[in-house]
Amino acid sequence: MDIQTSVQRIESYLDLDRKPVGIKFFRNREAFDAFEVDQRDRKVTYCNAVQLASKGKSMKLTKENQSCPNGAFALNFTDVPEPIANGMGRFKKGIYTDQDTSRQINEDMVFMKEKTYGVAVMPLENYTTDPDVVIVVGSSFNIMRIIQGNGHFNGYTNNLRTVGLQAVCQDLTTYPYNTEDINISLLCPGTRLVADWVPDEIGVGIPFAKWYEIVEGVKQTINPFERNKNKEAIRKRLEEKGLDAGDLRFDENYDDGSYSGGKIDI
Q1: Complete DSSP assignment for 103-139
Q2: Based on the structure, what is the number of domains in the chain?
Q3: Is residue 235 part of a domain?
Q4: pLDDT higher for 16 or 258?
């Protein structure tokens, strides 16, 4: 499987409204300049760049492009400001009940450890070399299916951590990058404002090293978890993309015969 095939497959298995987004970090100017994608010509929040990429836009960003201080220090373009590090900044704004709680939130977040020179943010399908992280934002149903795909090979998802703050930059990017494991985010008020996500959307961040495995896991869990209506839609999308739909089995689910009394009448 290559990147483009993996995107075709995941877009067939899931009814996505947005493209999966690939994130690639650069530690020096030479590597950044050699990556043949145009740099953004003005400032943008990192999370808005991800939202734009989910709709097809590709761009590179440096420190000079950062319009959100939180995203800038999460990605290690800049240092964490002392009022954030010691907890006073967010405590004074009423986000947390006391300074210690606020400080602990910051300490529990996992920011980029290495200094970042630049980052590429673009639809995953546009990559010809491996990115570092894949971000998928969509309905809770689709994120559930990705979690099930991961669970098919890796079991229970023990590491999920989120607090409704620094959602795209930390929850979905630097946390998966550093832990080499997936994470979900319910997003946060800041990114919902500047990136204009749909109110019910949530996200999942995936280290690229796990991406192909998760795509395969989503495929392997279609028959036990998806109902006939969804399987029919999946078959249609697969056939439209010229992909094999022969593994789909209808009238079969993991919970067949499990519920006494049958399905509730609507």
Answers
A1: HHHHHHS----SPPSEEEEEEGGG-SS--SEEEEEE-
A2: 1
A3: no
A4: 16
